[in-house]
Design brief:
4 helices, 92 residues, mainly alpha
């Protein structure tokens, strides 16, 4: 770490020191680099897929939960199935 006058740590020195243990912490985002075609580990791939699936499931749940009580009732699930069937039959 860099020290200024009287042994004080200069601003930014701690951030640079911490970045050694966190690749991509300074100067960019690891995930952004990977999204542009960089290498990705199996664990990172799975983690990203799980996060995308979780966001999609939460969005679907919120859409299906008509009364927004945090519970999908049998009636709400049935209404969703009926709406899906209606959309499917009208698109053919």
């Amino acid at each position: 770490m860099s020290r200024g006058r009287a042994g004080a740590i200069r601003p930014g020195a701690i951030n640079r020191a911490c970045a050694v243990n966190r690749p991509g912490a300074i100067g960019g985002n690891r995930h952004a680099a990977r999204a542009r075609g960089g290498d990705i580990t199996k664990a990172e791939y799975i983690e990203r897929a799980v996060e995308r699936a979780k966001r999609a499931a939460e969005k679907r749940f919120d859409k299906l939960d008509a009364n927004h009580d945090g519970v999908l009732s049998a009636d709400e699930r049935g209404a969703a199935r009926a709406a899906r069937a209606q959309r499917k039959s009208s698109s053919q």
